[in-house]
Amino acid sequence: MNLIVAADKNWAIGNRQDLLVRIPADMKMFREMTMGNVIVMGRKTLESFPGGRPLPGRTNIVMTRQENFDPKGAILVHDEEELKKELSKYDSDDIYVVGGGSIYSLLLPYCRYAYVTKLDYSYEADTWMPDLDADPDWVLKDKSEEQTCFDLIYYFTRYENQKVKPFV
């Protein structure tokens, strides 16, 4: 499995059910990496997408405790066991965890790579993911040259989990 996220200096990833910032190059990279693949998310992440609908061109798997939630065009799972059963149908390399905070925390140990757009700024936030720089199991493998979007500096990075746990 893989993880893909944009995170600020404090590993914040969202505020008020929205991204911290929208960077066209980051959105393009997300689209290119996930297109034709499987994306795994929580209900709130799905609801933050345009129209609250699944992203086209991908298999959308949504994990929620809400039994009556009916995301048209997405596969719904309610717990970790259901998620394991569903993900066993796919090649692990084709699976991307896309948020939010609780889903990142749950699935992080099972991800081989984390593609993180690191924002060189601290935002007001209410959602974070685990700090990969502070986790000895995760190693920064690649970091792009400095990128800019107006006055925001950011980097495309790739972390590798040295102790991936089998999920399925």
Set down the secondary structure blueprint.
Blueprint: E1 2-7, E2 12-14, H1 24-34, E3 38-42, H2 43-48, E4 59-63, E5 75-77, H3 80-87, E6 95-99, H4 101-107, E7 113-119, E8 127-128, E9 138-143, E10 147-149, E11 152-161
Parallel strand pairs: 1-6, 1-7, 3-4, 3-6, 4-5
Antiparallel strand pairs: 2-8, 7-11, 9-11, 10-11
Give the overall shape, derived from the CA principal axes: globular
CATH top level is Alpha Beta
The CATH topology annotation reads as Dihydrofolate Reductase, subunit A
User: In this structure, how is the largest beta sheet organized?
Assistant: 9 strands, mixed
Instruction: Tell me how many strands there are.
Output: 11
Number of helices: 4
Radius of gyration: 15 Å
Spell the H/E element sequence: EEHEHEEHEHEEEEE
- How many separate domains? 1
Report the mean per-residue pLDDT as an integer.
96
Coarse structural class: alpha/beta
Q: Write out the CATH superfamily name.
A: Dihydrofolate Reductase, subunit A
- Roughly what fraction of the amino acids lie in strands? 25-35%
The percent range for helix content is 10-25%
Q: Keywords, please?
A:
alpha/beta; 9-stranded mixed beta sheet
